Inverse folding.
DNA sequence: TGAAATGTTGGGGCG
DNA sequence: ACGCCCCAACATTTC
């Protein structure tokens, strides 16, 4: 006589508003059992990196509080999807499991396999479109961003943003792990000191960021490129964990500007979408170059150089500022991401997968698709990628986008008193700063070495 | 969502 | 007055 409950399986959609999986669970009229499973063990799983775990800890805490306020709670379980979920369904006698669509190959495999023995229903919670909805006239996936984006813009139908429900009926919930026992927070050393002052994980924090950004959409087109000011939306970690839906973001900016800012911001949302679709169509995206010729690229191995890059000790100010911003805050400005990536791949000639792995571990906004697609974009091996010969000169980039030096001075205190003229190339100053290293590589040499390396594969690569 | 090399043009100094 | 050269400034090409 008891009504079988339904499981609401949260994954990367840690929110209560505009969440299609939650809506479906509520529409069933059954008691809802909200669950989050941390899967570190499925082979091939890209388990969250260190910075993402910090974020996840706080986001789960916020989600649980939000659920409690609505008369429910959150069940935490740890283990492989394919053992934990069947166990949970057996324990609760759940009649259905509602969850978000997965793009990650390992999660897709796991959920597809589970679907054969459990009543799993997937809903779109983290994208505007399913990858199968956006195809070229001939039915193939888009390989070029601009026509992809055009089709998205044309196809987008604003769907009402579903508000957070006032109440979520749940019977007694099954046993949950204690969040602290997952040890998602760093201890020794605690590299996340002060992060709570700069990041607010959780749905409320996401909405606050969105509101704070809305008046700045108009200026976005120019301001987004300047790392020394607050020109970007800072929504990326919230989107990565699904604390806000792309649908909500898209619609919330639509009336707030009429010029280029709005269009440019939306195209950034669509780059995220493009990346996810690429990962869906090309599951090897995180592991192998999309353009096969790049498999033969003569990358170097140089652990000391890699470590210097990771620590922000390359002797190139804008690169070091970016890498230190990443390490100390878990986030890096997008313009600077392109600069540090170009420097690693081209001037240092190190494999893009080294950069991908480091970003995965250190970014609070790490998403498998965007991370992989963006690194391949810089490396020239991806879809609609920047040509490999497009080598950023980090001095010129610094002078152009950090013209007053505020960004570099903020994150590289050794350079605080270098005069502006030499701030982005301190080795040229008559008396270079004493406590700052000389460049790890001569920029002209590194550039030429990269172009020469390209020639070894260029007959087969475009 | 490049940078550097190379080419072109035109003003001005100067014999 | 004229041709010559230099060299910004800008445009084009190449990687």
């Amino acid at each position: 006589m008891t009504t079988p409950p339904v499981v609401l399986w949260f994954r990367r959609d840690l929110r209560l508003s505009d969440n299609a999986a939650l809506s479906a669970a509520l529409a069933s009229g059954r008691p809802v059992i909200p669950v989050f499973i941390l899967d570190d063990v499925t082979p091939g799983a890209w388990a969250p990196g260190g910075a993402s775990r910090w974020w996840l800890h706080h986001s789960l805490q916020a989600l649980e509080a939000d659920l409690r306020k609505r008369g429910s709670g959150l069940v935490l379980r740890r283990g492989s999807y394919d053992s934990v979920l069947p166990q949970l369904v057996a324990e609760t006698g759940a009649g259905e499991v509602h969850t978000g669509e997965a793009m990650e190959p390992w999660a897709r495999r796991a959920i597809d396999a589970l679907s054969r023995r459990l009543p799993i229903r997937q809903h779109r919670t983290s994208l505007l479109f399913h990858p199968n909805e956006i195809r070229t006239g001939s039915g193939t996936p888009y390989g070029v961003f601009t026509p992809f984006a055009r089709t998205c813009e044309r196809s987008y139908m604003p769907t009402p943003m579903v508000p957070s429900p006032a109440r979520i009926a749940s019977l007694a919930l099954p046993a949950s792990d204690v969040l602290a026992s997952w040890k998602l927070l760093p201890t020794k050393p605690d590299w996340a000191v002060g992060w709570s002052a700069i990041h607010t994980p959780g749905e409320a924090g996401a909405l606050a960021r969105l509101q704070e950004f809305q008046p700045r959409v108009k200026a976005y087109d120019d301001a987004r490129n300047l790392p020394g000011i607050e020109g970007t939306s800072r929504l990326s970690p919230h989107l990565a964990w699904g604390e806000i839906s792309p649908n909500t973001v898209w619609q919330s900016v639509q009336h707030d500007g009429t010029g280029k800012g709005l269009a440019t911001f939306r195209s950034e949302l669509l780059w995220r979408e493009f990346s996810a679709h690429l990962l869906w169509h090309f599951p090897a995206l995180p592991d192998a170059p999309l353009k096969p010729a790049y498999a033969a690229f003569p990358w170097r191995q140089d652990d000391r150089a890699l470590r210097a890059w990771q620590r922000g000790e390359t002797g190139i100010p804008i690169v070091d500022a970016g890498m230190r911003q990443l390490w100390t805050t878990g986030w890096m400005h997008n313009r600077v991401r392109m600069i540090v990536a170009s420097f690693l791949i081209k001037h240092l000639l190190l494999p893009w997968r080294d950069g991908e792995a480091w970003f995965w571990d250190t970014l609070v906004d790490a998403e498998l698709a965007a991370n992989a697609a963006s690194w391949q974009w810089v490396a020239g091996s991806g879809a609609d990628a920047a040509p490999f010969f497009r080598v950023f000169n980090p001095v010129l980039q610094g002078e152009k986008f950090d013209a007053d030096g505020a960004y570099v001075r903020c994150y590289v205190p050794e350079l605080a008193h270098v005069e502006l003229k030499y701030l982005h190339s301190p080795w040229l100053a008559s008396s270079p700063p004493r406590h700052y290293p000389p460049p790890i590589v001569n920029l002209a040499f590194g550039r030429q070495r990269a172009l020469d390396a390209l020639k070894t594969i260029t007959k087969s690569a475009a």
Notes: The mean pLDDT of chain A is 96.
